[in-house]
Amino acid sequence: MNDRKNSRDDGIERYHGLDPDADPVEQMKSIYADWAGSYDDDNDNKLGTISQPNTVILLTKHLPDTASVILDVGCGTGLVGKHLLEAGYATFDGTDLSPEMLTFAATRGYRHLFPADAAKGLPVQDNCYDAALCVGVFTHGHVGPEGVDMLLRVTKPGGLIIFTVNEGVWKSEGFDRAVNRLAYAGRIEIVEAVKQDYMTREGVSAWYIVARKTEQN
Prior knowledge:
This protein has eight helices and seven strands. It has helices at residues 10-16, 24-47, 51-62, 79-86, 99-105, 146-154, 167-170, 175-184, and strands at 69-73, 91-96, 113-115, 129-138, 155-166, 188-199, 204-213. The longest helix is centred in the N-terminal third of the chain and has 24 residues, at 24-47.
């Protein structure tokens, strides 16, 4: 199963109908610019996405210090930030491809927000966050496995990276191999890896990965 089926909303349909011959980044910018205003409603009521609260639950389990400094990569309208606030975290930044999405995220407690194409890297210094979260970005038509290295770069040694990978791209795009490669090289310690619900109304699961950055990086 994948997240390309049973979608009726215009924003969702445009995402599923990406033109393979056109610039994917420019397409995504256009889609999310138009989708921003209805994204939260679609997330809850059409897709039934629960990856945001699930990820924050994992964070509270493995990094309960609410004074931790966190980066939310691909934050969109800030749904992860909403759950971070509810869990008591006070210092978190966010980045997203879409400035229009960030306008909505600005109401959800982020310290700093900045637009960036995560596929090309982030304008963030090395080793500066206690945790980097990436929810809903490793999926069809978005960022590939190289994004895991990006999360590691901005996270302090001993810090956590927590990310989701849509089940439809976990093996086909090599995320399984990328995670295993980093673990085998001693760059990360896998703290938790679980496959569970992602988009409940579309019957889609995702891998939820919690990894600790080692001193070897």
